[in-house]
Amino acid sequence: MSKNQQATPYRDLDPTTRAALRLSRSDLSVRLRERARIYQCNEDMIADMAETILADYQALLADGRDQVAMIVPVGPVGQYPILARLCVEREVSLDRLTLFIMDEYLTDDGAWIPETDPLSFRAHMWRNLLDLLPDDMRPALVVPDPTDPGSVGRMIEDLGGVDLCYAGVGITGHLAFNEPLAGEIDPAYFAALPTRIVPLLPETRLINSVTAARGNVARIPRMAVTVGMKEILGARKLRIFMNRHWQSAAIRRLLAGPVTAAFPASLAQGHTDWTLHVVDHVLDAPEPELA
Treating both helix axes as pointing N-terminal to C-terminal, what angle do 79-90 and 42-62 enclose, rounded to 10 degrees? Predict the structure, then answer.
């Protein structure tokens, strides 16, 4: 390539994905009008996420539900201490709630990483929610078990299904750790994948090292156990939260790109009841800007 030639941006992408990535902020806002709640800052989104979880739970109990089942992420972070405080202040017990956390990192041997590891998602939930509640107000916490991944599906069936799934979106388009599979684009196949052990893609390990390990990629595990797209898309309501600057591209592919297993979050477009909860800066165009 000569010095006067340039690589064509998006040359390896289909036309629909190219168009989605080129959506201006204003055009994206129009598409989001009936789908999204926009927040001015991350603190506003996190506070509202806690309020939303509690309101969803109470609404289901008011509708006569004896037990409520939710799939929840660890990231975004910050909502669970607020949720615990709200429950204590308002004297709302979560003892009729089952929380399925989306995923957990694994060692190379396929076991949960230790709870003493700062990256442990299950330990995060205990520190930031369960330990902040009296024993009789705590929800049941279910962590996907790498020795019996199918137990998640069985528990969900026993509970009558998942009422709500709250999710973030990874840089590869994953919901939970449902990473794209090389050469697989069939959305129907991907939508049917259950809870399972997965390898993490290099892109995921890199971005997670930036957000959680100060760029120490070697510190991020290579494997995880994840709730499947089958369980996520089977939830009666799906609420997706996006707060990272680097999600400007992801939100466009999620909302306006093709429905494809190559970008798993796009499968949300086929859900009958899904919403987006987005910090304002995520709407900015995903174009280069050298400071």
Answer: 50
pLDDT at 6: 56
pLDDT digits (tens, 9 = 90+) for 72-99: 999 999 999 999 999 999 999 999 999 9
- The answer as to whether 270 is a domain residue is yes
Largest CA distance in the chain: 69
Neighbouring residues of 58: CB distance < 8 A, sequence distance ≥ 6: 92
Amino acid at 110: G
Identify the CATH number of the domain in which residue 229 sits. Answer: 3.40.50.1360
- For residue 242, the enclosing domain spans 34-281
Using an 8 Å Cβ cutoff, are 264 and 180 in contact?
yes
Is residue 20 in a domain? no
pLDDT at residue 63 is higher than 70: yes
Mean pLDDT of 150-178: 97
Q: Which of 100, 37, 22 is nearest to 239 (CA)?
A: 37
